[in-house]
Amino acid sequence: LYGIPNFKLPKDIVQAVIGDLERAGVLFITNTRIGESKTIDKLFEDGHQAVFVGVGTLVDAKMDVPGIDLPGVFQATEFLIRANVDPDYLPPDVSSKPEVGRRVAVIGGGDTASDCLRSALRLGAEEVTCLYRRTEAEMPGGKKDRELAREEGAKYRFLTQPIRYIAGPNGRVSAVECLQCELGELDDSGRRRPIPIEDSNFTVEADTVILALGYWPDPIIGDTTPNLETHKWGLIVADPDTGATSRPGIFAGGDAVTGPDLVATAMIAGRKAAT
Fold this sequence. Notes:
This protein is an alpha/beta fold. The protein folds into 2 domains: 31-57 and 217-274, FAD/NAD(P)-binding domain; 59-215, FAD/NAD(P)-binding domain. The chain is 26% helix and 22% strand. It contains 8 helices and 13 strands. The chain has helices at residues 11-23, 40-45, 76-84, 111-122, 143-152, 220-224, 255-258, 263-274; strands at 51-53, 59-60, 73-75, 103-107, 127-131, 155-157, 160-167, 173-186, 192-196, 202-205, 208-211, 215-216, 250-252. The strands form 4 sheets. A 5-stranded parallel beta sheet has the order 3-11-4-5-6. Strands 7, 8, 9 and 10 form a 4-stranded antiparallel beta sheet that branches. A hairpin with a 5-residue loop joins strand 8 and strand 9 (192-196). The longest helix is centred in the N-terminal third of the chain and has 13 residues, at 11-23.
């Protein structure tokens, strides 16, 4: 939640809602990882009659690309949190704003990529470019977010597949080596598969690279909750109208069920489960 930029979701609104819930009697217990600190079955043993799982999708998807560990290459979550959260709320080792330099490349095509583009511009980057391996028609992110990013100065390069992150003389990333792509047949997502074109290599200069490749659910809840049905990707199987899962008393909704989606969609799922 706190990785969502303030220009999309001001955190004073979040804090106000949390305050309203606390005054209504909701107790927030933080620093507790369900499946590790305490299992769902233990919650039932403690006397709870129902459990709603709304943990979202927290694990950054990654690419096995040479140079991914270079300084200046960020996962989207870390970048967005450091770029948008008040440093006083962050651990000392990640409390400083990212130094993005003049040129930033964002890899990905969803709403998170748009958030990264706009956040990089607010940090002072002069050239911010989104690299996406399909065409704009196949991008999963919202059209409105792309329009706003373009209005603020972001650019897009389509049919572009990164294959290597290149270090400069100081050891920090300085460029992205890419291949041009063409579209083939439909894949499992219903979109045309990007096919890299042999010997079409080119480079995009970048002082910072941000990987906005999507998110996966943390598998720990499925792994530690017997008979809770999940998809092969780890998403929880739940009734879309009630939130009921394969385990009596366990309900789920939001990104943990649908994959990455809107805050409003998750709120609707919670309301359905509550009624």
